[in-house]
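Troubleshooting entry. Yesterday's outputs looked truncated, so today I'm pasting the complete records for two proteins to confirm everything comes through intact. If either block looks cut off, that's the bug. Protein one:
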Amino acid sequence: MTQDSEKPNAAGAESGEPAAEPKPAPKRRQRGRVFINEERCKGCGLCITFCPTHVLERASRFNTRGYHPPVATHPENCTGCDICGHFCPDYAIYGVRLAEPGKPKESKDDDKD
């Protein structure tokens, strides 16, 4: 049994048209930033373990204390949630949320008259 209608492939080979270029993915706005004080770090890895967006990995280099500090291998994924900072026993890392473009920063002094 043969089928009268065939599905055209995605490249448009049946119609003789060249394949359309795929559109690049839209750039995501960076939502947060992580700051690491490598010299304070004792290499416990709690920040790496608890990072929900997997921004951090253990560095291959040593700090001056002989530990492997974390390094931000995927900083574009950081949301600034600061979970890394909450778990760090040495206060060697923290995350901050970045302000959205076009939105004014909220300040605590706005309520004062």
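Protein two, checking that the full record survives here as well:
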Amino acid sequence: MMKIIQKTGLAFILMLSLSMAALTAPKIYALKVDGLACPFCAFGIEKRLGKIAGVSRLRTDIKAGRIILTMKDGAVLDPATAKRAVKQAGFSLRALEQIRPPAQAPAKAVAKKPSL
């Protein structure tokens, strides 16, 4: 009886830790910004956005006028804060959306050769 309780408890703890990891996964946002024209523009806006609490990574696509912003685990980007930072950098925020990180590719199955 004790082993059943231990196994059930371990399974519960495992499920709980996996669900907590999903809740605290870093959030990723795409910001559509008008006015990005050169690397100097990108530097200026990255400097402002980088000061927002919880930001861990920024990637700027100048041609698309898009910035991908990754938050630290558990941090959330406040839209008003993002809009203010973009405006302070001299640009206009046209859109902000949370995006999902790309799914990790599943492990490749290795086919066994039939033995002769």
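Both blocks look complete. Sanity check on protein two: The chain has a mean pLDDT of 81.
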